[in-house]
Amino acid sequence: MPETRAMNPLLEVAGLRAWYGESQVLHGVDLRIGAGEVVALAGRNGSGRSTFAKALMSMVNADGVRRFAGVDLAPLRTFEVARTGLGYVAEQRDIFPTLSVEDNLRLGMNTRSTRLTRFTRFTLADAHALFPILRERRSARAGVLSGGEQQMLALARALLGDPALLIVDEPAEGLSTPMAARVAACLRTLRERGVAILLIEQRLALAPQLADRIAVMGHGRIVFDGATSLLAQREDIVRDWLGIG
User: Fold this and answer.
1) What do you get for the CA distance between the two ends of the chain, in Å?
2) What pTM was estimated for this model as a whole?
């Protein structure tokens, strides 16, 4: 397993298994993420990537080691996991469509101080500076925003919870190429601010200067974990597990 930036990783997962009912989706996943590190999790549809995120957030039945900042996540409920400093932006974005953009953002604000964040606390002013469209449309109902704008709202709302690690599931799904590029630029800005990111995305995973390393999942297991440059040398992984080439 590749070394992370931290001797003691911020997130440590070992032997993680997960189920939907009696159907097992994850079959022993091992992954570590260091503080401030950006890891892309790629793979074909159905490989188990989104289930991995939900297992971390205690949203599906799972067992195995799940430790975040020294805290055992296994016995925690979803809202308790979020309080540890682990943020999550779901593929469906899960905004509140009938509420205003500003009200959506305020619902995400963390009123507690946390010692896990390695950067100055993320404020409403920061959200407006990072995503100017949210300031311009702060009084609009969130449901009338475009897909890209809703993605920015979901990202900003999650960041207002001051996560030390942000899980982002398929942020470019359904977006135009220019809008996907804007989302990628926002993720790079977050990286510069010291936010660790688990990027569950194939479209952006291979983008230069975004992820520190890439992990590839297939059939509920990690089949590759290393630098993007090394992945380019593994034609078998790229062909069989990413469906490229």
Assistant:
1) 26
2) 0.88
Tell me which CATH homologous superfamily contains domain 11-240: P-loop containing nucleotide triphosphate hydrolases (3.40.50.300)
What DSSP assignment string belongs to 70-128?
A: TEE-TT--HHHHHHTTEEEE-TT----TTSBHHHHHHHT---S--SS-SSSPP-HHHHH
pLDDT tens digit sequence for 137-180: 999 999 999 888 998 899 999 889 889 999 999 888 878 888 88
CB count within 10 Å of CB 141 equals 16
For residue range 110-145, list pLDDT tens digits in order. 655 444 444 456 889 988 988 899 999 999 999 999
Q: What is the CA radius of gyration of the chain?
A: 17
Provide the Cα torsion 202, 197, 137, 147; round to 10°: 20
Pairing of strands 11-20, 23-33: antiparallel
Give the integer Cα–Cα distance in Å for 26 and 242.
18
Domain positions in the chain are 11-240
How far apart CA 63 and CA 217 sit, in angstroms, is: 18
